[in-house]
Amino acid sequence: MYTYTADFSNAYLHADMPKNKNIAIQFREKGILQLIANRIPPHFKNEDGVVMSDLVGVLNKSLYGLANAGKLWGDLLSKTLKNMGFKRSTLDPCCYYNKNYHGGEMHLCVFVDDIAAFTNNPKAWEKFLASLRKQKFKLTDEGLTSFLGATITTSNDGESISLSQEPYLESMAIRFASELRDVKPKDTPLPTKTSINMTQCPKDENSQKLAKSFKFREMIGCLIWLSVYTRPDLLYPTTQLAQVMSNPSKDHYNLLKRVVMYAIASKGRKLTYTSDGQGVQLQAYVDANFNTGDTGRSNAGWCITISGAEVMSSSKIIKAVATSSTHAEIHALFHCIKDVVWIRRLLEEIGMPQGKPTPIYEDNTACIKFAETLQVKNRTKHLEIKYFYIKQIANWGLITIVYMPTKEQVADAFTKPLAFEGHK
User: Fold this and answer.
1) Taking Cα atoms as reference points, which of 333, 344, 352 lies closest to residue 285?
2) Side-chain half-sphere exposure of 419, counting CA atoms within 13 A
3) Sorting pLDDT into bands at 50, 70 and 90, what band is 31?
4) Phi, psi values for residue 168, rounded to 5°
């Protein structure tokens, strides 16, 4: 499989404006844009109703800054790719595929004006670029060294591919240098048994004023981008600290700086996907931490892996108050299964069906028994009806729930702060 990336130049300027919606532009003497309106104002027309062309122009093409510019570009690109024989995924509108494009199979992932392509025929990529350029699109063929800020490296034997964000973390070290000056790097993002919730936010006016001077939102924004892309180990601390983003205390800020310094100190970590010769094998890990903090609510965490590395993960606070640890685990399992079913359907759509039930690793035996039996018992009969979806999916043979000891549970890191050995 060959992989490529490309970038459209001035993407938004290619789309035509809708004919039923005119955008009028008035220019100053030096040609600077002065006014944009959804209709041509009456005073831009002469007595005969003709637009005075020396004063106003009507946009025929989309323009950066228009509210619907992104949608117009997305519609144009989708129409173009469909005309080239690509099908748009019904499960992810940013994915396109063609099973026989110039003698090869090709899959596309689109992010605004960036494209990542996967094909088993290098000539198909050349034909793809040539076809787009023939339609007046300007593209930059960037090879596969980076995509959306992540550095991509491929092993010499072509059997593995790795993603990292080391340059982004280096830029964070420069950006927050003054804030991190006195912070020493630690082996883990948070101390064990750390609890973060809204009840710890400052109530007095002086502390709230001090909180406004923190670069709390900026740091959280950087960590979110890292945690959802290449650093799932940052997911739990980031989601916990994001709760108090509107009114953080000094202690919250110190914890956040520790997380940022940990991320920077471990900037060389990568997500590595390795081929084992057995095709695309889906696996999932799920866990919950019962009754954390002062709110009585539990934390749920899960991750889904393909070829030995994470492709989707989540750490969230369960909205409903769980009445037992089993109840909390059932909540987490329900949300994990929804993601597993979606990925199974997506893989099947693009030609990688899962021939076997997807194993989901769980460390709560009562939760496993709940999923495997159709019986309704006293301890679980009060659960909302949606949680019986677990039983249905298990009964259909789409998943199999496998017991895994807590010490080996990968998803444990998404529910609580762990010591170094557990976090590693």
Assistant:
1) 333
2) 2
3) very low
4) -65, -40
Residue 357 has pLDDT above 50, yes or no: yes
Backbone angles phi, psi at 104, to 5 degrees: -145, 160
Q: Computed from CA positions of residues 357, 362, 367, 368, in that sequence, does the dihedral angle turn out positive or negative? A: positive
Distance CA 394, CA 340 (A): 12
Helix (H, G, I), strand (E, B), or coil: what is residue 365?
helix
- Model confidence at 80: pLDDT above 90: yes
pTM as predicted: 0.84
| Element housing 239 (H / E) | helix 235-242
Find out whether 350 and 89 touch, Cβ atoms under 8 Å: yes
Contact (CB, 8 A) for 286 and 332: yes
- pLDDT tens profile 285-328: 999 998 766 677 888 999 999 887 889 999 988 888 888 888 88
- The pLDDT tens digits of the residues spanning 200-227 come to 777 877 777 777 778 889 999 999 999 9
Give the 3-state secondary structure of residue 422: helix
With beta carbons less than 8 A apart as the criterion, state whether 164 and 150 touch: yes
CA–CA separation, 122 and 423 (whole Å) = 41
Q: Output the pLDDT for position 200.
A: 76
- More confident of the two residues 380 and 38: 380
Q: Contact, 298 vs 292, CB < 8 A?
A: yes
CA–CA gap between residue 280 and residue 285 (Å, rounded):
17
| Cβ atoms 288, 299 nearer than 8 A | yes
Largest CA distance in the chain: 83
Residue 184 CB neighbour total at 10 angstroms: 8
8 Å CB contact between 150 and 241: no
- Residues 21 and 201: their CA atoms lie apart, in Å, by 48
Does the structure show a pLDDT above 50 at 30? no
User: 29-68 b/e with 16+ CB inside 10 Å = b?
Assistant: eeeeeeeeeeebeeebeeeeeeeeeeebbeeeebbeebee
Q: Is 299 exposed, middle or buried (0-12, 13-18, 19+ CB in 10 A)?
A: buried
